[in-house]
Amino acid sequence: MNIAQLNSQFGISNQLSFRTDASGLIIADINNGQASLCLQGAHLMHWQPASQSVPVVWLSRDTKPAVGKSIRGGAPVCWPWFGAHASEAGFPGHGFARTVPWQVIESGTEPNGGTRLVLRLIESDKTRAQWNQSCTVDLTVVVGETLRMELTTANTGTTDFVIGEALHTYLHISDIAAVSVTGLAGCDYWDKVGGANLRQQTGAIQFSGETDRVYINTAAECVIEDPKLNRRIHVAKSGSLSTVVWTPWVEKANKMGDMGQSDGWREMVCVESANAIENVVTVAAGTQHRLVVEYRASAM
């Protein structure tokens, strides 16, 4: 669909409209600027509810949107695997869903006033070469004072398959050295910085260097405590048994090149709702799996 067709069929007055950005990608603007979403990758880029003076979802100032390239920040959709592919080194890390086109299939207004947008991953020869399974993949996004995201994988074939997945959400904070993440005390995690060792979390997570951890067997709500912004960001989930906590810190951020001018990486932390490593999901034939996450901000 072109922009005129999208706005005619799915646009909602004063709530949802579509435009093309400078790179040629199609962007959905939701609730008069509270959120924006790129149809490539079904990638939510920005969310700032009306009650907040700064965004809740972080987008790098130096990201360079382009056809077929991932966007730095926002909420990338990692699917149908998380991390490196198990056997094909040439396949993209975190799957292909975040860099291929999705189509809008539904829009509407929720009873609480939130704006709903539903997108479906478009199959192609390129995607089938990497994932030859019969299925549909939908992302439902509901934007308002809370942000709800629901990733649904439906197995439409006759054989079971296994997926890894994540909503790889970058969250906006004051300073990585000043925040902590609660909700994971006592959980086991794979420490990818510390040599892929299995460790156990003691107390709140605090940051003083590169952190890349996959917490396993946990459906717990996480809270980012940010005293400098006098704010808590709540991340509540279902259909997810892994939580990934990540910050690149200075050396890795400088090598990446798109983490934000100077020390922009200090203003984000990833708290990702996932199913990874031993928590990958078997989707039986004729069934579906939903990963649901709700984000909200509150005062401390």
Explained architecture:
With 300 residues, the chain is mainly β. The protein has a single domain (3-299), classed as Beta-galactosidase, Chain A, domain 5 (Distorted Sandwich). The longest helix is centred in the N-terminal third of the chain and has 8 residues, at 3-10. 41% of the residues are buried. The chain has helices spanning 3-10, 125-130, 249-256; strands at 16-20, 26-30, 35-38, 43-47, 77-78, 102-109, 115-121, 135-143, 147-155, 161-163, 165-167, 170-172, 180-182, 188-191, 197-200, 205-206, 211-216, 222-226, 231-238, 242-247, 268-275, 281-283, 288-299. It is built from three helices and 23 strands. Strand 18 and strand 19 form a beta hairpin. The N and C termini lie far apart (44 Å). The mean pLDDT is 95. The strands form four sheets. A nine-stranded antiparallel sheet has the order 6-7-8-9-23-19-18-13-16, with no helix packed on it.
Q: Count of DSSP helices? A: 3
Low-confidence stretches: none
Give the topology string: H per helix, E per strand: HEEEEEEEHEEEEEEEEEEEEEHEEE
Strand order of the largest sheet: 6-7-8-9-23-19-18-13-16
CATH architecture: Distorted Sandwich
> Approximately how much beta-strand content do the residues carry?
35-45%
The total count of strands amounts to 23
Number of domains: 1
What is the CATH topology assignment? Answer: Beta-galactosidase, Chain A, domain 5
Largest sheet report: 9 strands, antiparallel
Please state the overall shape, judged from the principal axes of the Cα atoms. Answer: globular
The average pLDDT score comes to 95
- Rg over CA atoms, rounded to whole Å, is 18 Å
The rounded distance between the terminal residues' Cα atoms is: 44 Å
Assigned CATH class: Mainly Beta
